Backbone:
């Protein structure tokens, strides 16, 4: 088929003339697939083009159908933008476990690394700090956090599923699971190379400081430190702490309390956008003032709905999937377009300004986090752009009728229903 013929058929499809094609399969293979050579299973006239007689791992492959049978609109290739905590090895200790996906595991993820951590009831992530900022979302249970700011102002808070916390780089903190079931959460650091294994740990520092220096620093005899751990504890089992008020009183300082909370109750916030297709809640430095390097959105998409075609102009997007199943296509220059499937525990990554959508492909709500290394959430909607461009320009570019353009939404929807 020459370019002129393909162009004619594409134009016919766009104007509703696709019914003239002999079969719906042929229509699908032509409309929306302008590339030569054509891609997608619909173009495989020889059945052997679709067979895969080599070794198989169905348990993994069946979760990623768009890799095995991509839509014919996919073209070219791009760096892998799918990964998953489900295939990351756990480091297990008495008191909990953690697993991570950093840039070493996920090359495209240059701005953010992620850690999935579980603490038993009483389990402690030992006192520590990072060279990067730590953002977190609670996914299950209850956790007590402590933090001290640079002016010596402490904060002690309890967090539950749906809550966020943010610790600026360099601020010391601790985490402990509460009863009855402990806690699970996901941490995101504002550096793709950051790792749970390059944490600055309290036990490591004290074990590698001369005892006489410890004595001078704390004003107690050196003998008082004879039983400190000689290896770091990282995660260990402790006793479930008592009432929050008691710990807050014990930590109180003359300097007072920090002016901006380190915790944000995102799940309790009214949606910033709500439609028949779902809802979006946003947390950035505008409402979560302490979070100056990380912004986030909690997205819920109803079955069959779609996170409309859009892009983010100010930062790469790191996604964490909490519930349901969906697929995302990312568009790049080239052209390049690639589709991947996502389930709970999976991670997606979209480079700054690349177009994409997320579609709910399951029977239940699809819920995921969008996280950005930025102080504010920013987004450009494709439909919003076209609706607010002179119609003659849109019509000339896309061969769309004035009637079609007039139906474009004038108000950004974010999430569209089925």
Residues:
């Amino acid at each position: 088929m020459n370019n002129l013929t393909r162009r004619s058929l594409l134009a016919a499809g766009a104007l509703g003339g696709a019914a003239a094609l002999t079969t719906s399969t042929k229509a699908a293979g032509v409309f929306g697939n302008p590339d030569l050579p054509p891609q997608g299973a619909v173009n495989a006239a020889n059945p052997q083009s679709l067979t895969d007689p080599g070794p198989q791992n169905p348990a993994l492959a069946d979760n990623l159908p768009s890799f095995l049978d991509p839509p014919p609109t996919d073209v070219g290739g791009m760096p892998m933008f799918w990964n998953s905590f489900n295939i990351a090895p756990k480091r297990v200790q008495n008191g909990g476990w953690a697993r991570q996906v950093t840039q070493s595991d996920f090359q495209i993820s240059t701005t953010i690394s992620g850690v999935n951590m579980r603490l038993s009831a009483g389990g402690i992530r030992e006192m520590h700090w990072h060279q990067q900022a730590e953002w977190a979302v609670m996914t299950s249970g209850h956790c007590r956090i402590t933090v001290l700011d640079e002016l010596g102002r402490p904060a002690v808070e309890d967090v539950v599923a749906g809550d966020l916390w943010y610790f600026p780089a360099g601020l010391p903190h601790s985490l402990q699971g509460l009863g009855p079931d402990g806690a699970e959460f996901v941490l995101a650091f504002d550096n793709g190379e950051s790792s749970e294994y390059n944490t600055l740990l309290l036990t490591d520092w004290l074990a590698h400081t001369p005892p006489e220096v410890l004595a001078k620093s704390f004003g107690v005899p050196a003998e008082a430190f004879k039983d400190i751990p000689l290896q770091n504890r990282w995660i260990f089992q402790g006793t479930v702490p008592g009432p929050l008020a008691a710990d807050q009183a014990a930590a109180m300082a003359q300097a007072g309390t920090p002016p901006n909370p380190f915790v944000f109750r995102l799940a309790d916030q009214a949606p910033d956008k709500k439609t028949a297709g779902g809802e979006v809640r946003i947390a950035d430095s505008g409402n979560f003032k302490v979070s100056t390097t990380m912004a986030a959105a909690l997205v819920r998409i109803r079955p069959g709905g779609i996170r409309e075609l859009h892009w983010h102009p100010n930062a790469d997007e790191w996604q964490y999937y909490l519930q349901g199943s969906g697929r995302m296509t990312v568009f790049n220059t080239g052209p390049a377009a690639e589709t991947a499937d996502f389930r709970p525990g999976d991670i997606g990554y979209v480079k700054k300004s690349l177009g994409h959508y997320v579609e709910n492909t399951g029977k239940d709500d699809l819920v995921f986090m969008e996280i950005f290394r930025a102080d504010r959430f920013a987004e450009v909607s494709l439909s919003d752009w076209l609706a607010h461009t002179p119609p003659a320009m849109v019509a000339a570019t896309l061969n769309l009728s004035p009637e079609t353009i007039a139906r474009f939404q004038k108000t950004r929807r974010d999430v569209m229903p089925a």
